[in-house]
Specification:
The protein is α+β, with helices and mostly antiparallel strands. 28% of the residues lie in helices and 21% in strands.
Length: 517
């Protein structure tokens, strides 16, 4: 978003926000006095939220989502079979329970009684249709296809009754519930064809959507988990400065993914507060390992030794992060916590660069304003690399397409993601077939080891196998995981019930359980 949009005001850019357009009365009071008696949940008003945008690439197709703004909008309209709690464990949503046979090749799901916005009752045919749509070989934009296609044996999946579905797998898999909880797995009604007219089982009914600008929805009183507190929600798109200005000016009640600098400034503002999920984000530099010089593991390891993690945490994360150790998921299940913390060794990094032929070489770091701190991290890393004899040119690309462009552009790039189970991360980002393989880490033996780990039904053996995969990525891969940052959202004091939940979990960006006071 150009700077002039920030000056004009976020809601002015979105065409204004009226009570009629958003489906309910607006509550615009702010400041300490507005909180009186608001600790008790109550219905009414419209909650306005703003997320980093993706321009014209934003979509209302729940199986094609890529960005947090898409996921938040889809979460309002649709439900998944399974979601994740704050500890990254699967929890029931439309599937109220599940069980597997002895070797994990067949899973049976019992569906809860849920109603679509058009009155249709959820049944097994809707689930099978949704899975078939996700796995459609003709659809290139299906977010979860690459993870589910190797797992589900769709022709053998069947409806056993109105509320029972049996999912047959191509092989043993202990992680199916977590896979069904990943982004892009929402359940749509059988026959769903038009993403411009979404009908789901979620807590809000769709009203309007303009890509790169805004989305509006109103309360669905017949939601299976109970009617939402707000009359409606409005989800807007904006870059960092505009999000900060909007929440401080009282134009929105919720601003997603704020910077540590903003959090410090917000401490003196009585109208807003920061809701932080500790160490829920992951920040890294991604080096492409399919091209020189980082196709040589020695050069990739040099990056991990030349980086000053403490400095990046201090400057980019404002000290609100734990040091990374070149592995995703610190504190999550399957994380090998016994691996010693890697420190900085510029002399050894220079030696490895010389031996790999990368010393003095010029490489490109492709960055963007797509997420707060990306550009600062790129320039700081470039300075640190220069101390070891690697010359890094920082190039800034457009934010709207950065996360797609970055997969093929530049030798280095920014990498950030929210919380997710470690097996999901590895499957989505570290396999030859992974759709978001930013480091171009493609090794068939690693793929086979991953498949063996997730097919192991015994917990301890499965944990050991995942730990071995993580160690290999740490030692040989192109992921320089320098920090695990707090995930920071800004909330108006008049908005209550916002959970300090990691991204991609059930209570993150959840607006049916919040209320205005």
């Amino acid at each position: 978003m150009p700077p002039e949009h920030s000056r004009r005001g976020l809601l002015g850019l979105a065409g204004g926000l009226s009570a009629a357009a958003a489906g309910g009365a607006l509550l615009t009071g702010c400041g300490p006095g507005a909180d009186a008696g608001s600790s008790t949940p109550k219905r009414g008003g419209t909650v306005r939220a703003v997320f980093p945008g993706a321009g014209v690439k934003e979509t209302m197709d729940p199986h094609a989502q890529r960005q947090f703004v898409d996921i938040a909008r889809h979460k309002a309209v649709f439900d998944k079979l399974v979601d994740l709690d704050a500890t990254l464990r699967p929890v029931p949503r439309l599937a109220e329970r599940w069980s597997a046979n002895g070797d994990g090749t067949v899973w049976r799901l019992t569906l809860r009684r849920a109603r679509f916005h058009d009155g249709h009752l959820l049944d097994g045919d809707d689930v099978l249709f949704s899975l078939a749509r996700i796995l459609d070989p003709k659809a290139a934009d299906r977010r979860a296809k690459e993870s589910l296609a190797p797992v589900l044996d769709l022709p053998r999946c069947r409806r056993l009754g109105p509320r029972t579905v049996e999912l047959a797998l191509k092989g043993p898999n202990a992680e199916l519930p977590a896979l069904l909880a990943m982004t892009g797995t929402a359940v749509v009604r059988e026959g769903y064809r038009d993403p411009a007219r979404p009908v789901g089982t979620g807590p809000f009914r769709f009203r309007s959507f303009t890509a790169g600008r805004s989305f509006a929805a109103r309360r669905f009183d017949d939601h299976w988990a109970g009617a939402p507190y707000p009359d409606g929600i409005r989800v807007l798109s904006a870059e960092t400065e505009a999000r900060a200005n909007a929440v401080q000016a009282g134009e929105v009640e919720y601003a997603h993914e704020m910077s540590a600098t903003f959090a410090r400034l917000a401490e003196g503002n009585p109208r807003i507060r920061v809701v932080a999920a500790p160490h829920a984000g992951a920040d890294a530099v991604a080096a492409k390992t399919d091209r020189p010089p980082f196709d040589d593991p020695r050069a990739a390891l040099a990056l991990k030794l030349l980086v000053d993690r403490e400095r990046l945490v201090e400057v980019v994360s404002g000290g609100r992060a734990a040091l990374g150790n070149d592995m995703f998921g610190k504190g999550f299940a399957y994380y090998p916590a016994d691996v010693p913390q890697r420190g900085r060794d510029v002399a050894e990094a220079r030696r490895l660069l010389r031996r790999s032929g990368a010393l003095g070489r010029r490489v490109t770091f492709y960055t963007s304003t797509a997420a707060d701190g990306f550009v600062a991290a790129a320039h700081l890393f470039a300075e640190q690399a220069g101390e070891a004899g690697l010359r890094v040119d920082v190039v800034t690309g457009p934010p709207d397409t950065y996360f797609t462009d970055q997969l093929t552009t530049g030798t280095l790039g920014n990498h950030r993601c929210g919380a997710m189970p470690i097996p999901t991360y590895l499957g989505d980002r570290m396999l030859t077939r992974s759709p978001q393989n930013a480091t171009a880490w493609k090794h068939r033996d690693f793929d086979a080891a991953f498949d063996a780990a997730r097919s192991t039904m015994a917990d301890e053996r499965r944990r050991a196998r995942y730990a071995a995969l993580q160690r290999r990525v740490r030692d040989e891969g192109g992921l320089v995981m320098w920090g695990h940052s707090d995930w920071l959202n800004a909330v108006a004091v008049r908005l209550h019930g916002v959970a300090a939940a990691p991204p991609n979990t059930v209570d993150w960006a959840r607006f049916d359980t919040v209320w205005l006071g």
